[in-house]
Amino acid sequence: MADEHDTIDALLDEQRTFPPTAAFKEQALVADTSLYDEARRDDEGFWARQAADLVTWHSDWHTICEWELPFSKWFVGGTLNVSENCLDRHVAAGRGETVAFHWEGEPGDTRTITYADLLTEVQQFANVLKGLGVGKGDRVNIYLPMIPEAAVAMLACARIGAPHSVVFGGFSAQSLTDRINDAEAKVLITADGGYRRGEVFPLKPAADEAIADCPTIEHVVVVRRGGNDVDMVAGRDHWYHELMDGASADCPAEPMDSEQLLFLLYTSGTTGKPKGIMHTSGGYLTHVAYTHKYVFDLQPDDVYWCTADVGWITGHSYIVYGPLANGATQVMYEGVPNYPDNDRFWAIIEKYGVTKFYTAPTAIRTFMKWGAKEPAKHDLSSLKVLGTVGEPINPEAWIWYHTNIGGGRCPIVDTWWQTETGGMMISPLPGCTTTKPGSATFPLPGVSAEVVDDEARPVLHGGGYLTLTRPWPGMLRGIWGDPQRYQDTYWSRFEGRYFAGDGCKLDDDGYLWLLGRVDDVMNVSGHRISTAEVESALVSHPSVAEAAVVGANDDTTGQAIIAYVTLRGGLDASIDDLRTHVAHEIGAIAKPKTIYFTPDLPKTRSGKIMRRLLRDVAEGRNLGDTTTLADASVVNELQRRAAEVPTED
Ligand code: PRX
Questions:
Q1: Mind listing the pLDDT tens digit for each residue in 457-491?
Q2: Taking a C-beta distance cutoff of 8 angstroms, is the pair 593, 599 a contact?
Q3: Is the CB of 501 under 6 A from ligand 1?
Q4: In this model, does residue 29 exceed pLDDT 70?
Q5: Quick one: average pLDDT of 608-617?
Q6: Is residue 569 predicted with pLDDT exceeding 60?
Q7: Alpha carbon of 133 to ligand 1 centroid (Å)
Q8: In angstroms, what is the span from residue 94 Cα to ligand 1's centroid?
Q9: Are the CB atoms for 38 and 457 separated by under 8 Å?
Q10: Counting atoms of ligand 1 from 1, which one is nearest the CA of 500?
């Protein structure tokens, strides 16, 4: 873990500490260690109290947690309806006129959607889905821009017990095909297109291309957003607004088992095939409602804004399920942060009086590049808590965020978690934790994390691997269709422990410093992409014989994708051809920043590609020991080329 140690050495130069201010503590939900103390005494009892306080149940559970390693069940025997928890109970409590979403389209159009509005639309759409033959247990795929219909579709699925599988709108047709086929989805919900950087990006054509190879899809529902021309196949494709026109707004919420599958969400692992991560209902909802409430110190007059896309776990847990279960008022924004200008986010915060703001380090580093003059154009005094997620935040970015966005007064919650954990696991509580810039601090109350060395011995000081030692309610229940892969991926490296794939270091005060992935998963702008996935996309190009991909440190995106490609004899392809090909196979987010052509890849004598060397070349480091190489001249040649090849931003 040499690279990670370099990172941590830099991080640990950061000595500043930030205790919560007296003013913040005074109004905070949690200003002392009482939650930690309670959870330490009895973690299952602690989670049960959260489940009882934050979730409404149709019938009580008989067992808090059934744990047969590596499979857990939570609140066993209990029944609930997730959409009822997110909608009906708030309306029944007289909060129907509370705004659920202040939605802002990229071009500047807006919609204000109250909890009563959302409940009506969700019931109608649940009836639409039933009318299309969707029943309990049937999978529904969602491929939408950041429009309110995305939340409506997810909640409508939850209402009728049909697990959804949302695919980020930036993924390609091929990625959508793979995910639909793995889930064997019956219905696809998409849009004509959405707005991005001032232009309409078409989605329906990609959906059409995808479902040409998806035999299980019976119907496609199309939301009109972009206004772009689309082909509609009679009998298969339906406009959302036409179906909704005739739909009844009465669809009573049926009780579902606590362990009813709520959704699948595909994420990258160390092989080329994305994994369908399974999340269920009662435990997941408890976990996301609890963490959203306490980590953001949720208050009744809050306006909360999470800038993630619903296509990622952050959007599922901290736009849809957590905040709506808590009855929060949110901002939802469709587009990019620099349209029409670099101050769009700050304009939105001022316009809606956002109090709690959750974004990613990669975005913060981009804002730093655009300069402090952009936020300075706006009144950001409404802000109270700032959050980050997706990758380690470097102290410079933390301090910039604290100073220029938080006005020096807002606690920062650096939240570590994963698609697999369902909700936040390691994070400060803003009213009680003294933060250090760059550290996610401590496990949340109820969460048990431990750093271990190669032999699974707990590390009390210094670097190692982050593991989770006790089950938690939001944990994944498995990988769709592949229980063995679930066992192998997460539970085989260290016996009895969930291994997260991240390196981590403990400092003298017991603070956790996340060091990034220690496996072959890259983190590009907070998005997980596996090296194997990009390699397999590259070698599917007819001209490519062999490819090796590594993630190299990048000032803005955290890591950047660097590819080394050997072409087939006599065949040709340009860098642009290959980048376009990867975008077509996976999506634009997976396009390599740089591609080096090389007649050979550096391999050990046993034929293993030496990724460490490739990373060193990509990051311009002096090469260490190359004696195990079969042919050392390959690397010298690569280094020469690395000095010449232009990179793509
Ligand atoms: O490496 C960690 C990094 O993101 C990975 C999880 O990615 P994903 O499942 O896509 O979920 C992202 C949103 C929760 C982790 O294994 N990561 C996430 N949050 C942090 C982080 N690394 C350091 N600090 C964080 N706060």
A1: 999 989 999 999 999 999 999 999 999 999 999 99
A2: no
A3: yes
A4: yes
A5: 84
A6: yes
A7: 37
A8: 37
A9: no
A10: 16
The residue whose C-alpha atom lies closest to atom 4 belonging to ligand 1 is 390
Mutate to test the pocket of ligand 1, among 4, 359, 489, 514 (most ligand atoms within 8 A of CB): 514
> How many Å apart are CA 410 and CA 549, to the nearest integer?
39
CB of residue 4 inside a 6 A radius of ligand 1: no
Which of the listed residues 515, 523, 530, 553 should we mutate to test ligand 1's pocket, taking the one with most ligand atoms within 8 A of CB? 523
- Kindly report, residue by residue over 258-268, the tens digit of the pLDDT: 999 999 999 98
Residue of 309, 310, 389, 525 to test ligand 1 pocket, by largest number of atoms within 8 Å of CB: 389
**Residue 626: which pLDDT band, with cuts at 50, 70 and 90?**
low
358-373 pLDDT per residue, tens: 999 999 999 999 999 9
Distance CA 203, CA 180 (A): 15
123 lines ligand 1 (CB under 6 A): no
- pLDDT-based confidence at 201, cuts 50/70/90? very high
Task: Check pLDDT > 70 for residue 3.
Answer: no
Which amino acid, 485? R
- For the chain, how long is the longest CA-to-CA vector? 74
pLDDT at res. 1: 43
Cα of 517 vs centre of ligand 1, distance in Å, is 9
pLDDT band at residue 648 under the 50/70/90 scheme: very low
Tokens of 525: 């702008």
How would residue 159 be classed by pLDDT, with cut points 50, 70 and 90? Answer: very high
Contact 381, 407 (CB under 8 A): yes
Contact 258, 230 (CB under 8 A): no
Nearest atom (ligand 1) to Cα of 501: 16
In short, whether 145's Cβ falls inside 6 Å of ligand 1 is no
Which fold, 521-642?
A: GMP Synthetase; Chain A, domain 3 (3.30.300)
Topology match between the domains 22-503 and 521-642: no
Residue 325 CB–ligand 1 contact under 6 Å: no
Closest of 564, 581, 555 to residue 615, by C-alpha? 564
Region 548-556 average pLDDT:
92
Parse the chain into domains and list their residue ranges. 22-503, 521-642
Nearest CA, atom 23, ligand 1:
392
Tokens describing residue 149: 């219909």
Instruction: Confirm whether pTM is higher than 0.85.
Output: yes
Domain 22-503 is found in CATH 3.40.50.12780:
yes
Crossing angle of helices 633-642 and 611-618, rounded to 10°: 30
Pocket test for ligand 1, best of 418, 427, 527 (most atoms within 8 A of CB): 418
End-to-end CA distance of the chain: 28
| Ligand 1 in reach of 88 Cβ (< 6 A) | no
Which among 190, 95, 100 is positioned nearest to 149, based on CA atoms? 190
Cα of 428 vs centre of ligand 1, distance in Å, is 15
- Of all helices (H) and strands (E), which one includes residue 430? none
